[in-house]
Design goal:
Blueprint lengths: L1 H12 L9 H30 L8 H61 L5 H6 L4 H82 L2 H71 L51 E2 L5 E4 L14 E4 L5 E3 L4 E9 L3 E7 L4 E11 L6 E2 L4 E5 L9 E8 L2 E3 L5 E2 L1
């Protein structure tokens, strides 16, 4: 009974915490607010593009929104799967801690029961009864010491048990929070999958209704030439931006070196002048000593402080360029050229169109087309930085990687883009998944290599 009363009091002391919003929910709400603002800006930009685009009537335009939504849904599912794995690992760790705490509490309960039983068998005499019993003082002192020891042991054990019970309660709350987060992730995955299936069905219906129109349009030389002009214009703008930033960085480095050299030269001249003046003073002092004249008092040389470096003014990129992004150097100079002949294919599949081959009656291929299953991994051929990741007419979901030294690799017609502008990638990193966006009928990857804005044959560089 005594043990039950103690455990009841301890359990009552640990109050259940009220249900709280999970940390993931708070972070997600903040991210959604930020994403909403970005999406609003993008929507406004797209409206401007639509108003100024002269080729709005192409059938491929009707696919853009659906294909972008499929890419976003696939990326969200991928991110949710990673988050779910992390939460599951956390839940396993919490379960292990819960088992260890339960074993410790069970052990402490048994020890407390044993102490209470021993105290009951001993007669549960208190200190007052012992002092007034008139028994042997030595026995009384020994019994009092024993009672003090038992009381301290009980107090320590009760305190430890109370602490462990509180830890168990906190652990249970954390486990519940992790389970709530898993439920949220599962609900979001279900929603994303439903959205993805809806978009795929919508896109399939669009392709079915527009297949004949798309076939006719792709046969037209003008459309293919405009597609090529869009790509060339995009590459030219990106190359110019990269070059401007590289020149600005080089100019800043030269300015810093010039300032450092001027400071070093001024310091050296000041040191030489001080040495010459010191030598002159020593000579005058020696001559005065020889002639017995009173030495001329020496004035200390003024300390010449170096001029402070002028503050750096951050260069602002031109405002008229929509691709105003911070492009740090993607790779050391010459690193990409050194990989010639040793680059791996960006996707596994069969080469169905080669560089320079005629596209029907239209212009020649500026890259290659690799036939691949929908959803196949598309990987960067070398290290670099993503400078473009969006939908482009004729090329669908397109991603471009800058490898430094004005080399670019281009990956088109993707189902999903897994990297964003500014992301650094390594050779072999997955950056997209293959598809047939942009109006093509065959699933695969369109791949180009460019240097100084000009496309060149990737066959001598990549092992297809």
């Amino acid at each position: 009974m005594a043990l039950a009363a103690i455990l009841f009091a301890l359990a009552a002391g640990v109050s259940a915490a009220p249900a709280k919003q999970t940390n993931r929910s708070k972070q997600k709400a903040a991210a959604e607010a930020t994403r909403a603002g970005i999406q609003k800006k993008l929507a406004n930009l797209k409206k401007d593009v639509v108003r100024t685009e002269s080729e709005r009537e192409e059938a491929a335009d009707e696919l853009a929104e659906s294909e972008e939504a499929i890419s976003d849904a696939n990326r969200s599912l991928r991110e949710l799967a990673e988050e779910q794995g992390q939460t599951n690992r956390k839940l396993q760790e919490l379960d292990g801690a819960q088992e260890r705490l339960a074993a410790t509490i069970d052990k402490q309960k048994k020890q407390l029961s044993q102490l209470l039983r021993e105290q009951y068998v001993a007669g549960n005499e208190d200190r007052i009864k012992l002092l007034l019993s008139g028994d042997n003082p030595n026995r009384i002192s020994r019994d009092l010491q024993m009672m003090a020891y038992v009381s301290k042991s009980q107090a320590r054990m009760l305190e430890s048990l109370r602490s462990n019970l509180a830890t168990v309660e906190a652990n249970q709350q954390e486990v519940q929070n992790a389970k709530d987060e898993l439920e949220e992730i599962a609900a979001e995955e279900t929603e994303q999958k439903a959205r993805l299936e809806k978009q795929k069905a919508h896109r399939k219906a669009l392709l079915g209704s527009l297949s004949s129109r798309l076939a006719d349009q792709r046969k037209q030389i003008g459309n293919l030439e405009r597609d090529e002009q869009r790509m060339s214009g995009l590459v030219d703008r990106l190359s110019k931006l990269i070059e401007e930033q590289a020149l600005a960085a080089a100019a800043e480095q030269r300015r810093r070196e010039a300032v450092a050299a001027a400071k070093a030269k001024a310091a050296a001249e000041a040191k030489a002048l001080a040495a010459a003046r010191k030598a002159e003073r020593e000579r005058l002092a020696r001559e005065a000593a020889k002639s017995g004249a009173k030495p001329v008092p020496v004035q200390p040389e003024p300390v010449v402080e170096p001029e402070p470096e002028e503050p750096k003014v951050a260069q602002q990129p031109p405002e008229e360029k929509p691709e105003n992004i911070a492009l740090a150097p993607a790779a050391p100079e010459g690193a990409f050229a050194a990989l010639k002949g040793r680059l791996r294919a960006p996707v596994s599949g069969a080469l169905t169109a080669s560089f320079g081959a005629k596209r029907g009656s239209g212009p020649s291929w500026k890259g290659v087309f690799i036939k691949a299953d929908e959803g196949s991994d598309v990987r960067a051929v070398a290290a670099g930085r993503v400078v473009f990741a969006s939908w482009l007419r004729g090329f669908g979901n397109l991603i471009i990687v800058d490898h430094g030294s004005q080399y670019l690799s281009i990956y088109g017609n993707n189902q999903s883009l897994l990297k964003r502008v500014g992301d650094a990638v390594r050779g072999g990193d997955q950056i997209a998944s293959a598809g047939n966006t942009g109006g093509i009928e065959e699933s695969g990857l369109y791949f180009e290599l460019r240097h100084r804005g000009k496309a060149f044959n990737p066959a001598g560089w990549v092992n297809f």
